[in-house]
């Protein structure tokens, strides 16, 4: 597998999110926290699939973009519900923005 910088960024994002969502109140750990981890793992799976399946690379990258967009919207909900304070939210927003830039560049190269 081609080890693009996006894979290390996704790894860091996953680790950060899994640790951050562990601190969510119990009633949100099984809804929002689970949704966040599912979205982030879906993003990672789509990127791995894109790197391995060049025939359907564009479709996998679109799926990754959709997962990233959903993740960002879920994180915004968490911030609005005060589950993520301003500083952690800004940090995770910077992380998702970097992943988004790398993903956008990859999609542009893939056509």
> What does the average pLDDT come to?
95
Task: Write the H/E string, N to C.
Answer: HHHHH
The tally of beta strands, per DSSP, is 0
Number of helical stretches of at least 4 residues: 5
Uncertain runs with pLDDT below 50, 5 residues or more? none
Cα separation of the termini: 20 Å
Biggest sheet: strands, sense, closure? none
CA radius of gyration is 14 Å
Share of helix among residues?
Answer: over 70%
Q: What characteristic shape results from the CA principal axes?
A: elongated
Beta-strand residue percentage: under 5%
Structural class: mainly alpha
Q: Mind sketching the topology for me?
A:
Elements: H1 5-21, H2 26-29, H3 32-52, H4 57-80, H5 86-110
List its traits.
5 helices, 111 residues, mainly alpha, 0% strand
Can you describe what's shown?
By secondary structure, the protein is mostly helical. The chain is built from 5 helices and no strands. The radius of gyration is 14 Å and the shape is elongated.
In short:
Helices cover 82% and strands 0% of the residues. With 111 residues, the protein is mainly α.
């Amino acid at each position: 597998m081609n080890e693009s910088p996006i894979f290390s960024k996704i790894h860091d994002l996953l680790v950060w999110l899994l640790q951050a969502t562990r601190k969510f109140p119990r009633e949100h750990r099984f809804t929002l926290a689970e949704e966040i981890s599912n979205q982030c793992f879906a993003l990672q799976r789509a990127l791995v699939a894109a790197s391995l399946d060049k025939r359907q690379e564009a479709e996998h990258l679109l799926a990754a973009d959709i997962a990233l967009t959903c993740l960002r919207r879920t994180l915004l909900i968490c911030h609005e519900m005060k589950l993520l304070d301003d500083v952690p939210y800004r940090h995770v927003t910077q992380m998702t923005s970097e992943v988004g830039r790398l993903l956008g560049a990859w999609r542009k190269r893939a056509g």
